[in-house]
């Protein structure tokens, strides 16, 4: 047996380490290719390079969303896998186990738990503003309950997800091989919606993190279309269209300055506060009712935290906590002890629980594969650029398909024109290839056209089928011309983007869930009103202290004598007390029965529909236990040239310069010192030399001039304005304006107009003269207003019904008449208050 020849082991060659710095990866690869088996490197350089590779893998492949479609790879793979299997919104639900298996088997080589958890999150309507997966079964809750195992649940795509995937089969995006090179997966989705802003994103990468809040779809789409129309729009203009995030759980955003920083620099912080009201539910005790909680707050943990604080006596004044939440929404009742100040308890809850949380915004996303912190406009610009590319690529694809089909139809048309000769050539040919070549030579056809002729069925020879081919070719030629026009004109491309976005936007919720409070904006560098649309609204205030603002368009003009529309959904024992007209840029001044004045911005009042009750004033203003609002008015500026006149129920009149109240806030300051058992009834903004008219319940009115009346300080008590008879009381006051009339309405819905010339100027302290004759049929007078012919009167009843009537329809009558019916009241209903809309509104 021959011996094996021994071979000496070869010595590994080595290369010396460089004097400074280490070898880069290309040098290592080159050394290995030369046969060197041991390559000395600097360990710090090797660690740095390896860690950077790992970091970029996490950043690009896992943690950060793409700015174009707003998705991370795992989200994109789930949606694409479901799209490939046609698990759409109009198909039956599919077991989640099947979906997870499809995703990890074909696209996502990671654990099934990560894929299922991601899918669950995309189906939760308290997490996603616009869910991308529709779930059936237990998909978790806002209390932190986990979803059921994927063998028990089912899912399918939503319409919104299908908008992200629309046209993906038309070469609109690039594809890359999956992990085992057996399939292709998209690098990005066509994204028919600006998903990054609508649904937001959060993720922690290596050395960086993103936290993009969800936004209102209608607002984002409006901003995109506005930016397409005018690319020079400033950030301030865009923030008017997208004023703040819109969380699916609602709540109130506080922190305009942090919001401004986030939208302009990409980083900022806001506070989210729970939405609540203060109600009297039983035994006359105040109850804090929470109906919306901050985004990503676990309700169960929140209630446990409040319970612990009450048990440890950190927060006193709470007697009971009840969670009455159900599938219709959240309702948590926090019952307070007797004589407890609700505002104090609320402040403690905001400070020590998650009824108020801080939310840090980081607008970080991948742009061309690189992480970048973007401002609001840059995100929208990137989305528009992506959609433009999608539209161009789709149009090129459709043009190519149309040209291919037209090419075939042109060949078929030639065959039909020479059908007898074509048949003769085919019949005389021994093989298919011979027939193909003969057709191509005789009619100058391409191979594709010749094949189409050879594949043509005999039924195409009928005259009807022939005409169909001719019509289809004509239609295709029109489309080809249109596609080429789109590719040649950038304006058409942008118009298509706009039209498609607007069509999609119509199908989704437009209502904003989250209210905005700009109270912390630094107005030295940034005007809050720049972000708020200046519009006229109607403000209503109920006897139980609920306030709201409603757009004027809600109340359409009606004929005199109508019944009106529902103006509020009231409790049986609650009634509408005050109504006023204002602008969202105005300051609303509210006066209490104790003579204090409170001020707040009109835009801070929650907007609500005509059927909504509104928000409790106790959750907004620091009112005393026995204090209530009795009058309100609005003013744009605290002008030193103007004054405010106050009248009490007992006829006490006071004039003070308006600028004295410039520092009035939600905490309130003294406006007038009232006598015991008296209360403030009405206020008016006046010029120093105006005439005013004071009216009483029993039909007496006094017109007096303010020129000789001195302005008094805030602590003053005022002087006698009108001397009242026994049992009478003041109901209102207004300024006498040239070419205007006095309007009066009574408790049972009767009213009239009177010329001010019927009321001569008298001295203060007199009884006045008759302006309406009260009686059993019309009831006592309720309110007066100064009106002009082009104005509208908005009248509100105790039941909450509101009617808007043109002043021109109300007849002018004498002082001693009872007037005409203006409102047809329901049984046991009565008139509560009126507001005037000027003719140019």
From TrEMBL:
It is an enzyme of class 5 (isomerase). GO terms for cellular component: chromosome; cytoplasm; DNA topoisomerase type II (double strand cut, ATP-hydrolyzing) complex. InterPro entries: GyrA, GyrA/parC_rep, Gyrase/topoIV_suA_C, Topo_IIA-like_dom_sf, Topo_IIA_A/C_ab, Topo_IIA_A_a_sf, Topo_IIA_dom_A, Type_II_DNA_Topoisomerases. The active site is at residue 152. Residues 466-493 form a coiled coil. It is found in: Cytoplasm. Keywords: ATP-binding, Coiled coil, Cytoplasm, DNA-binding, Isomerase, Nucleotide-binding, Topoisomerase. It catalyses: ATP-dependent breakage, passage and rejoining of double-stranded DNA. Residues 1-20 are annotated as: Disordered. Residues 64-531 form the Topo IIA-type catalytic domain. Heterotetramer, composed of two GyrA and two GyrB chains. In the heterotetramer, GyrA contains the active site tyrosine that forms a transient covalent intermediate with DNA, while GyrB binds cofactors and catalyzes ATP hydrolysis. Few gyrases are as efficient as E.coli at forming negative supercoils. Not all organisms have 2 type II topoisomerases; in organisms with a single type II topoisomerase this enzyme also has to decatenate newly replicated chromosomes. Belongs to the type II topoisomerase GyrA/ParC subunit family. This is DNA gyrase subunit A. The lineage of its organism: Bacteria, Pseudomonadati, Spirochaetota, Spirochaetia, Leptospirales.
